[in-house]
Amino acid sequence: MLNSNNPILAKQLKIQKYHILDGMTNLDDGWGAPYDNQTYVEAYDQLEMALMEPLDHVLEKSNVEEFRPKFKNQKDPKKRNWIKKTNGDTEWKELIYGFGTSDESEIEDHELKKHYFQPPLQVQRNSFVKNTLMNFKKESNIDIQRLAIMGCGEMSLERGLCDVLGTFGTINVLSVDIDPVSLSVGQQLLEKHLNQQGDIISSETGLPVLMRSYLGDILEPDHRFADVDAIVSLEVVEHISLEDAKKFVNNVLGTLIPRIFIFSTPNHEYNTVFGMKPGEFRHDDHKFEMNRKEFSDWLEELSIRFPHYLIEPPHFIGMTPKYEDLSGASQAAVCRLQDNINTSLPQEITPYKSVGHVACRLGSRLVAYNLVRQAFLEWLENVEMHPAGLKNETFMPYWSFNISHILHHIHAPISFSSTIDEKVAIKYIQGMTSYKVHPDSVNGVNGIAIPQSQTKANLIETVERNAKMQ
């Protein structure tokens, strides 16, 4: 378990005690860098413990295929005549994010599809956040260890950031939304994304990321969202009254106090691109929409009220040809903390209910490979290769060994070692020995075959030489 009392880790890591593992009072989330096998293993062990924590509330599982975003004139996926024959996943993707079917327009005339966005506007907003956070990390040299997404909806941003969380140095993502149906759908889509991208994610550099979701009202500050490194809220404030929107932003900048806060809202002037009438809101459930001057004036007010933040001029996202004069469909604010100010929000203030937690298992493949290598070397030092044990079933005699006997030498908690697949471990050993050993399966038992021509010393030398070349 990671803590500042560990003399080995304390020498390597800068431990920051946030205690954000909700109820796990003796655990730190500052897993830090540089990363070594021990750091990874202990982080994964701590992660597994966090995932066993009981949730405050279990959401009713919503049907993803029947989920209806509250968008104007959103097409019904049950009416199959409007879409090509595709599988359910493709339909869902096209429905929410696809060209000509996303939330950015209510135009149905195919001749007017030039007004839609490519890539879809939500993807562009996610990319804006990704690039902004990346630049913040580079310029400030501060890891975004704790990232909060307020008004997360169906967790599009969470899925869009999975591939860069390791680069950010992220170890916790906290998401909150007031709509249980959206949260349920978001959790399912996030889990599916993590499963589908598991091989890629496990190959990325970075410590594992604990991704928690909460049911709650963003107007009520929760201490678990305080003092985070970054808070993001995309296209959320317009869904509440302007008074409440200003209260929310004031709470973030004055109470939660993240190092960086990014929020966006529609540019009302851009609605003309969609053929909408003056004063008509983009979505039925929008309570307000700001033009460019109104949004800019709001940011100026925030700069005066919160001088400890540097608030940049509005950024614009999503632009179609011939409408450059309207700047962009979404307008975003970027607020960077200039002074070290800590929140005074008491820890007993926890209005949000935890409803889900999943793991983004970054770096697990490299850790598993290194642990298997160490186990194989230790096993080689101790194993006896007697001539009497040779098998002569092929043209070249060989020794056959059960892979489980090798994996028994792995020095890691069961929470991590149990995740290493035997067949994958055999492939690792093949690679690290330059394919001097081979897979061997007898009666369903996985093992390795070592030719008589190979000596222990030769194999050890090969493994160690390849390790230095990595």
From TrEMBL:
The enzyme's E.C. designation: 2.1.1.386
Record GO cellular component, one term: perinuclear region of cytoplasm
Keywords, alphabetical: Magnesium, Metal-binding, Methyltransferase, RNA-binding, RNA-mediated gene silencing, S-adenosyl-L-methionine, Transferase
Catalytic activity: small RNA 3'-end nucleotide + S-adenosyl-L-methionine = small RNA 3'-end 2'-O-methylnucleotide + S-adenosyl-L-homocysteine + H(+)
BP terms from Gene Ontology: piRNA processing; RNA methylation; siRNA processing
Cofactor: Mg(2+)
Cited InterPro entries: Hen1, SAM-dependent_MTases_sf
SUPFAM superfamilies tied to this protein: S-adenosyl-L-methionine-dependent methyltransferases (SSF53335)
Keyword Transferase appears in the UniProt entry: yes
GO molecular function: metal ion binding; RNA binding; small RNA 2'-O-methyltransferase activity
Family label: Belongs to the methyltransferase superfamily. HEN1 family.
Name of this protein: Small RNA 2'-O-methyltransferase
Species name: Caenorhabditis remanei
